[in-house]
Protein: ATP-binding cassette domain-containing protein
Organism: Alkalicoccus halolimnae
Amino acid sequence: MESIIEVNDLTKTYKKTDAVKHITFDVKEGEIFGFLGPNGAGKSTTINMICTMLAPTSGTISINGFDVKKQKDKVRESIGIIFQENTLDEKLTANENLMLHCRFYKVPKEKREERIREVLEIVDLVKERRQRVETFSGGMKRRLEIARGLLHYPKVLFLDEPTVGLDPQTRAHLWEYILKLKEKEGITMFLTTHYLDEAEISDRVAIMDQGEIIAMDTPAALKNELGGDIIELSTENNEKALAEIREKIDGAEVSMEEDTIHVKVASSDAFISTFIKTLTIPVTKLNIRKPTLNDVFLAFTGRKIGEAED
Ligand SMILES: Nc1ncnc2c1ncn2[C@@H]1O[C@H](COP(=O)(O)OP(=O)(O)OP(=O)(O)O)[C@@H](O)[C@H]1O
């Protein structure tokens, strides 16, 4: 697959902060690329530089073959951006919002109606197009913003925390639309999120922490790298049980969090049979699961993504 975004040795230094430190990566045409990290990791700073809105301190970026520093207009024609905050005009109808954007992006007059209908069909808002945006639900507004981002046929769509502030059901719906877009239109998508479950949708994920990319691969490969199973259990005396597991079971990585003991093992089958024979403290709760991206973040940084934000 061809690269559509190439970022090379990119840095951004503010007076007191190295917000982005020498990052290098590429995004392939047609993929969903997820940028993952806690608040303050440097995600927005990186996106802003890629989208021509912020000048890098050093390094190079090209999008669709255009240099971000020297060919800003060409880059801007190649991208669509969905910001974190709502930027629609609430007093206008969906159609009027899109018309305004067509003018802004100089979509030819005779093409506007047709193009607006096309993008509204993609996000399922054709029927509602004459309604004022202020009457829309949060999810409908996000979909309209996506439609607007698509009006000028961008090659890459940037979605910065697209589901922030939406309820779980609306979030799930929005992801369905995003996947449909990838499949039907073949648009490359660059998304940031700090919801680890949402990053699973990505073809590849880059995990960013304190201005650096600390891991990058498919979600499956990142999780496989950790290997094994994670066992979560509670007992009648967690302190004692923790000591017993440490003492009696070889090769188990053990930690305790609130009232749950976490044990990382190569194979849960082998662990459970030894465990039943050796543990003397009664178990009150037991759960076996595969690693998640949260565990990947924890393994790379020593912190959970939530803790990293505190
Ligand atoms: N204009 C600025 N001036 C000085 N420091 C800044 C500026 N913008 C960002 N920073 C700092 O750079 C670092 C990275 O911030 P950035 O907003 O890129 O993180 P983020 O991963 O996008 O987080 P969020 O999800 O909260 O947007 C932070 O330490 C932030 O305080």
Summary: The radius of gyration is 23 Å.
